[in-house]
Structures are given as C-alpha cells and as structure tokens.
Amino acid sequence: MAHEMNGRKFLLQGNEAMAEGAIAAGCRFFAGYPITPASEISERMSYRLPQVDGTFIQMEDEIASLGAVIGASLAGVKSMTATSGPGFSLMQENLGYACMTEVPCVVVNVMRGGPSTGLPTSPSQGDVLQARWGTHGDHPVIVLAVSSVSECFSITVTAFNLSEKYRVPVVMLSDEVVAHSRETYTIPSADSIEVVDRIIPNVPPEWYKPYEDNSRGVPPMAAMGDGYRHHITGLVHDAYGFPTEKQDEIETFLKRQFRKITNGFFEIQITKKINIEDAEIAVIAYGSVARSARRAVAMARAHGIKAGLVQLVTLFPFPKNSVVNVMRQCRAVLVPEMNMGQISREVKRVNTGLTEVSKYNRIDGQLITPLEIFEELQKL
Amino acid sequence: MDVDRFEIRLCGSGGQGIILASIVLAEAAGIIEGYNVSQTQSYGPEARGGRCKAEVVISSKQIDYPKAVQLDMILAMNQTSCDAYCYDFKPNGLLLVDSDLVEQPPTSRVVPLPFTKIARDVADTNLVANIVALGALGHFCPLLSRQSLETALFARVPPKTKKINSKALQAGIKAAEKFNLDTLPRSIIPEEEEI
C-alpha cells in the first residue's frame, strides 16, 4: 500500500496528508485520543500504520497519549500524537517531560476556537504562545505551522527530521481550515523524501553515557532494550541520566538544551518569501491566514501597491533574521492573525524601531479573507 | 479548459450529504479532469441538523486562497442555508435549489428542481438527494463530463450502494437537461444598469 501511494495524485485532506507525511518520515507509532478537528489524523493512522508494521493505540486521554508516544520513542520508534486545543492543554505536562528527557516526538495541535471547549469546528490561531510556553520551566522548543495540504505532508517530514536530529519534541500547529480542506496532491516518490534518523551510540554499552555533551550538544540515543544502560528521569540529570543537584552539572545540562537549538537556527528557522525583492510593505503571516495573504498580496500588486509576503513556517525559535531583513526594507508590515495578537508580539519584539508594525485580528471563528488583508494593506 | 477560478458552493442541513457531494465533485475535477482543486467546509458541532456549507474551487493554476471568493454556482438544499450562504455570487452565477425545500430563492438566476422528491421517486429514499443534485450541478458545470462525475462517484461510495447512486445521478442529470437556461435572465444585475 505504501508503495502504491507514492507518485499518485489524491484529493487529500490536510489531516490525511499529515498522516501520510508522518509515515513517509518513518513514524511507526501513534497514540492519540479523538478530538475535532484532529480526529482524521488518528483515523488514517489507525489503518495506515498496521500496513507498514507500525502500531496504533487509542489511549484513555491526551496525557496518556503523549506518555505512550514518549515511551515508544525511547524504545527507538519514531512516534507522533495529534490533538486540538483542550487535548493540547492536557499534554503540556508530558511535553515538558519530553523536553527534559530529550525524547524526539512530534505533537500535532490542530487549533480550534478556545478557550476550553470553545468552537470545536471553527479555525483559530489561539494556541501559538501556548505551544511555545505552555509547559513549565525555561525550555527551548520547535514550533512549526502549516498552511496547505502540500505543507501538511512536507512539513510533517521536516518536523520528524528536526525532532530526530535535535532530540526535541516538535509541535506542529495546524488549524481547522488547513486540517479539513481537501486539495489535490501528488505524494512524492519515497526516494525524493529526505529522512533523518537519530544518531545511535557507536561505543560499547559499558562506555555509554546517555547524556554526555558533544560538539552538537545532542547525545547519541540508544533504544531501550538494545543493551545500553539508560536512566530516564524528569529531574535535572547528569551525563549518566541520574538526578543531580550540583550547580555545575545543572547549568551544563540546561545550557546544552538551548545551545543545541541555537546551533541549528539556520536550518530550523524556515520562512517562505513571496514578492519580497522589491516590496515596500509586507504581510507576515502563517497557517491558513498565509493563504489569504498570498492572494491579498497579488491583489495589491494588481493595484500597483508593492506588497510582499513572509510566510512563517517556523514560529519558534522565532525566525528573527528573516523577519528583521524584511523590516529593514519595508516601511510597514502587517501581521494578520486569528487571535488577538500573538505572533505580532514577537514581530514587535524584534522590530527595534526599524519599521511600523500593524496587526489585524479576527476571533469570530472565521478565516481572515484576502479582501480584509488587501484593505488593510491599502491603509499602510 | 483554461480556467482561473471556478467556484461552487453547496449548502444545506447537516446530514443531507452536502460534504460528500462536494468531495465527489472535487475528485471528478481534481483527479479525473486533472485540475487543481480545493475543497473546504464549514459546519456546526451537531451530527444532524444545523447549517452546513462546502465549497469547491477549481483552477488550472495553483490555488492561493482555498475558499470561495466569487461564486459561479451555488446549490442550496434548504431555505435556511439558502438564506445564509447566497452571497459573493457572480452576476451571471447560477443558483440550484431543491424546489420543495427552498420556497423563496434570493435571486432570479435560479434552477428549481425537486431533488429530494426525485430521489424518493427513483431510489425510494431521501438519502441520495445529494447525488441527484450532484448530477444537476455536473450538468450545468462546464468543466465536468458526465463520465468523470460517474467515475468519481463510484470510487467514493460503498460498492453496495452503486446501483441506487447511479440511478440518482442519472435522474439528476435528466432533470437538469429538461431545464432550459435561456429562460433565465443572463445576469442578476438588471439590464438597464449594465449599460
């Protein structure tokens, strides 16, 4: 079945494309609990995973789901879970555990209107800062956002690759529009997809220190059951994985968590630029709103306004370099979002007086339309 | 056929099969006819009832905004959804309504056909009213052939229901063929204002 799908054109839902992307990236374990608008990811995984010798479990709730995912990943299997707002809130505790224990995994949050049960069938971008800061403690994290069915496939592959390479949980933010939209998409051939696997130890078991620093800041990871001693704890730990309260070990450990991500900024911070070369004003958008922005920019160009678009694929670590370059060039930037201004805070933070930052917000459960963005651009 | 954006909206009550019909439409255009297609939907948290809307955008170019901007065709399967979702219509757009369930269509360019009644007549069930309407939509949509619609339909529905779905589709096409579009005004904008 997997081979039959590659190279063929399908009418795929965003959620279905995410499941296919995960399988293409090597994901062989999924644990989840159904929730609108993310359920189709679980649904597709439940029949696709057995076809590729993978495992699917429906858990009793979202806390257990991420727990199972962390366990499977420790056993050497690439793992994923998917949920929406209320479930994502429940996952925060284990998300921190995955950060602390440096377990690669992918957590999909298909954003719906909130807070609480909110608007289950309506889109929102209200969980952006929760994805960054939701779990407690000072921690680096990678957050990616998708805007189309094609990105649901390709960025899911990227999410797994980054997760494996840096040994961090990667949060993927989708939204109801992207998740439920169906678009024609040709699944790429297997050999055209770059897949990264975690580095495993090349020393004998008795030499292995599971959390020993190296130049990348990412220790090789042994799978449980492979004969390597491996102690896992949510407490701050030393190179052997055992709890420590020694100041030098605490600082070394926590600083390495930040250093490994900072070292990878160039690769991790993904943006897409459209019509930016000669732009005088720019839209900074992500998720489904980036699709509206794409059309709004085309409309503005047709009216003689030199507008451009920066689509943020990586939301965190915030792609400062890309955004600052555009802010140096443009006299104004507009940040449209389906929240009251979460990424616009980041944009303002890195602005430092370079340009004028305007925001456009909509929180009525509807996607921002191209016309709305175009009208805002006319005012800049 | 080279087309920038051809947009169709289907709306009705939850449970009438609006989304399924839009998926078949999208697969006929996207997989069989080879266009780029985007199919989106919006519905409430209810399993049955409530307003339901699905949109299909067909283009030979890459589709930027996935939802409808200016509609070429709208299908309304009840009055509530017709009142709620008949907007962003092109002046020469075409509205298809279930004539028994929509008593007051908001425009003059309307094709009223009794989809649900036809479904009961040919298949003895209301369930395939969406497919009857799909047949009529396909007939009036210049981008779709009868063949591609049928292929897409059979690929999507359970094999057991192939026969009644086929009957429903044919009945929808037949009903649409009897309707003469020349009897409608060419545009919903009054002629004198067009000059």
Give an overview of the whole structure.
The complex is a heterodimer of chains A (380) and B (195). Chain A has 14 helices and 15 strands. By secondary structure, chain A is an alpha/beta fold. The longest helix of chain A is centred in the middle third of the chain and has 18 residues, at 149-166. Chain A is globular. With 195 residues, chain B is of the alpha/beta class. Chain B has one domain: 3-Layer(aba) Sandwich (Pyruvate-ferredoxin Oxidoreductase, domain 3). In chain B, β4 (71-76), α2 and β5 (89-98) form a beta-alpha-beta unit. The longest helix of chain B is centred in the last third of the chain and has 17 residues, at 162-178. The two termini of chain B are 30 Å apart. The chains are: A alpha/beta (380), B alpha/beta (195). The A-B interface holds A 9-11, 36, 120-122, 148, 177, 180-184, 288, 291-292, 294-295, 298, 367, 369-371 and B 23, 26-27, 30-31, 35-45, 63-67, 69. β9 of chain A pairs antiparallel with β2 of chain B, so a sheet runs across the interface.
Report helical residue fraction of chain B. 25-40%
Q: How many β-strand runs of chain A?
A: 15
Number of helices of chain A: 14
The H-level CATH homologous superfamily of the largest domain in chain A, spelled out, is: Thiamin diphosphate (ThDP)-binding fold, Pyr/PP domains
Do you know the CATH topology of chain B?
Answer: Pyruvate-ferredoxin Oxidoreductase, domain 3
Note the main attributes of this structure:
heterodimer; A: 380 residues; alpha/beta; Rossmann fold; 3 domains; five-stranded mixed sheet; 14 helices; 40% helix; B: 195 residues; Pyruvate-ferredoxin Oxidoreductase, domain 3; 38% helix
Short summary of the structure?
The complex is a heterodimer of chains A (380) and B (195). Chain A has 380 residues and is of the alpha/beta class.
Write the layout of secondary structure elements.
The complex is a heterodimer of chains A (about 375) and B (about 200).
Chain A: H1 2-5, E1 9-13, H2 14-24, E2 29-32, H3 39-51, E3 55-58, H4 62-74, E4 79-84, H5 85-101, E5 105-113, E6 119-123, H6 128-133, E7 142-145, H7 149-166, E8 169-175, H8 176-180, E9 182-186, H9 247-263, H10 265-268, E10 271-274, E11 281-285, H11 288-302, E12 307-312, E13 314-316, H12 320-329, E14 332-337, H13 343-351, E15 356-361, H14 370-379
Parallel strand pairs in A: 2-3, 2-4, 4-5, 5-8, 7-8, 11-12, 11-14, 14-15
Antiparallel strand pairs in A: 1-9, 5-6, 7-13, 10-12
Helix pairs in contact in A: 2-3, 2-7, 4-5, 11-14
Chain B: E1 6-13, H1 18-32, E2 36-43, E3 51-59, E4 71-76, H2 79-85, E5 89-98, E6 110-113, H3 115-123, H4 129-140, H5 146-156, H6 162-178, H7 191-194
Parallel strand pairs in B: 1-4, 4-5, 5-6
Antiparallel strand pairs in B: 1-3, 2-3
